């Protein structure tokens, strides 16, 4: 998957240098080393391109990063999170570049991982935002894969926000929705919205969790409001986010943000609690536009992909956790041996 944890990693990587190139693996490489990918390689290429800190992407990047790869793209160094990444046979994929001093590390975002999100989709329980559930059963205690709750801070929002005010001559475009499990359908829609004006300033209104649950039903949203905020803010087509936007796009909101245009995709518009059209006011003002992104993918479709491959994904999660636990054990043993050797020297 591509999620806000990855965006946060790319944000940190960009801050370490001037130009950020992101290598994205093929489906075949991921299947071989990790298990089935949730998004296809084409979807992932497009999604990573849409993250605002990315300057360039390399399609079909090798799974093991070598000095040859870094030199080929004129890279001074490569960056990875402080979790470990292993090949199918348990080797550190960054061994060579670490040895040559061309490796930097950034902080992993606590409380989110593909494993965690896949777990939430497999469980689809009402409590999946707050319950700390591990798919791998009671034995799984890997600090990288184990599920912990995401804790939002104002600092994190500031780091993700553009901080840019609309300028005179900008067209202020407003869109609203759940934007749950931020995916390529959302990216294509926001790109199309962005193209509606010469100088677009796109504001995304995000509905609170209970509002999303009211109109989407089941156990939606899968991501809570804080997670959805960061997912949307990381997109290069978005200038601002309204956290907990009112469901009806009314007079106050339109006047407050001086909205020039309100857009909605081809998906169904659910009525407000009182049965009224949430877009009645922008329609009355003649500023409502339906935008066809040409992509019909929905959050429901993503969940269906996971459920269809349920057994494969459960096996993937358990295998990944077991591999990480083995590495932790090896690291612990090595540390013990080093400590024993040091103790003998001092004696």
From TrEMBL:
Top class in the EC scheme: transferase
Pfam families named in the record: CTP_transf_like
Keywords carried by this UniProt record: Lipid biosynthesis, Lipid metabolism, Nucleotidyltransferase, Phospholipid biosynthesis, Phospholipid metabolism, Transferase
Domain Cytidyltransferase-like: 1-118, 175-266
E.C. designation(s): 2.7.7.14
GO biological process entries: phosphatidylethanolamine biosynthetic process
GO cellular component terms given for this protein: cytoplasm
GO molecular function: ethanolamine-phosphate cytidylyltransferase activity
UniProt cross-references to CDD domains, sorted A to Z: CCT, ECT
Pathway linked to the protein: Phospholipid metabolism; phosphatidylethanolamine biosynthesis; phosphatidylethanolamine from ethanolamine: step 2/3; Lipid metabolism
Family: Belongs to the cytidylyltransferase family.
Designated name of the protein: ethanolamine-phosphate cytidylyltransferase
